[in-house]
Amino acid sequence: MAKVGIIGAGLAGLTLASRLAGTADVTLFEKARGVSGRMATRRAEPFSFDHGAQYFTARSQPFQDFIAPYVERGLLADWEPHFLMMEAGKAPLTADKHGPHYVGVPHMNAFLKAVAEPFSILLECQIARIEPGEDGVVLLDRDGTQHGPFDWVISTAPAAQSHQLMPHAFSGHDALDTARVMGCFTLMLGYHRTLSPEFDGLFVEGSPVGWIANNASKPGRDGPASIVVHSTNEWAEAHMEDNPDEVARTLLEEASNLTGLDLTSPDHQDLHRWRYAFVTRTAGHPYLIDPGHRLAACGDWCIDGRVESAFLSADKLAHALSEQL
Ligand code: FAD
Q1: pTM of this prediction exceeds 0.90
Q2: Which residues line ligand 1 (CB under 6 A)?
Q3: Which residue's CA lies nearest to atom 15 of ligand 1?
Q4: Are strands 136-141 and 146-150 parallel, antiparallel or unpaired?
Q5: Residue from 182, 186, 235, 174 nearest 208 by CA
Q6: From the CA of 84, how far away is ligand 1's center (Å)?
């Protein structure tokens, strides 16, 4: 059976692992402490926050089929959110968005934790180099440990990181260089007191804040009030290296002004900086494959910056690989 090494255990990496199971011997390498990538959850008992993806759509039949067993098991559910949208300084309006709007239950990362169960995953293992050789492709992690050789290696890291990792010979470098993924700050706020936002999700324009979620309104979240504030990508890019306390202060003040809620003095506060969050320019191909060097890459940055695109990119690559394995 062909040996396949997959870098990244977000949705793209785990989709590949699922699709190749039975035809390949798959090992995943993930630099973080857990799986899920940007479909992440941050817990700080008794609070929890989906600090990456907020919800996702499943419009394509393959993705609907993929998630169906997890919906059945109660690990995914339709949020059925009440969305508002507003321009800073103006009154909010109801936003019509076609659902379902899926979320993991009881946390966003519950879905991919379940998908990951059958697979061999090396966590806290950051791949630093990919080295094609005569006997196959070898991976070197940040501690200098060698993994492999593999018959195929696939990177699902964001485009800029895949660009750094892939050896010079990889045919997809131009496409990797084309993709642009912008940053985002996430402010997580927890309160023991009752907050009564008029919205479950608020889209904002004309402010450093782009989105505010009443995280506790998602299904299966029984904990106290938890609010997730996302900056816009443009604001994050302009303030990427700013003092985190100042970033948090700005987002907190803006969120209070926009919502009219007193969000000051939270019982819990945390800020996360996403260096790579949203795709603003795609690689222009649904996946990248180089059969000559037995290397490939895929992820949301191939199609557009959404959960469903990460799935579709990996699903299409898995079809292409099944003809090669
Ligand atoms: P990732 O989830 O980024 O997975 C890549 C994995 O590779 C990561 O786990 C990373 O740790 C790992 N990795 C990287 N480099 C290495 C290395 N060298 N060695 C080992 N491992 C490595 N999408 C929606 O559809 N709806 C939303 O509401 C939404 N909101 C979002 C909000 C935020 C703040 C962010 C950040 C994203 C949001 N998205 C949303 C986008 C969505 O999260 C992504 O499209 C999707 O999760 C991408 O999946 P992926 O597998 O392609 O990449």
Answers
A1: yes
A2: 7-13, 29-32, 37-39, 52-56, 126-127, 156-158, 161, 165, 184, 186, 230, 274, 277, 299-300, 305-307, 310
A3: 157
A4: antiparallel
A5: 235
A6: 25
- Site to substitute for ligand 1 among 38, 102, 109, most atoms within 8 A of C-beta: 38
Q: Return the ligand 1 atom nearest residue 277 CA.
A: 36
Longest dimension (CA), the chain: 64
Q: Separation of 52 CA from ligand 1 center, angstroms?
A: 8
What string of pLDDT tens digits covers the 325 residues of the chain?
Answer: 999 999 999 999 999 999 999 999 999 999 999 999 999 999 999 999 999 999 999 999 999 999 999 999 999 999 999 999 999 888 889 887 888 999 999 999 999 999 999 999 999 999 999 999 889 999 999 999 999 999 999 999 999 999 999 999 999 999 999 999 999 999 999 999 999 899 999 999 999 999 999 999 999 998 899 999 999 999 999 999 999 999 999 999 999 999 999 999 999 999 999 999 999 999 999 999 999 999 999 999 999 999 999 999 999 999 999 988 8
What is the CA(273)–ligand 1 centre distance, in A? 13
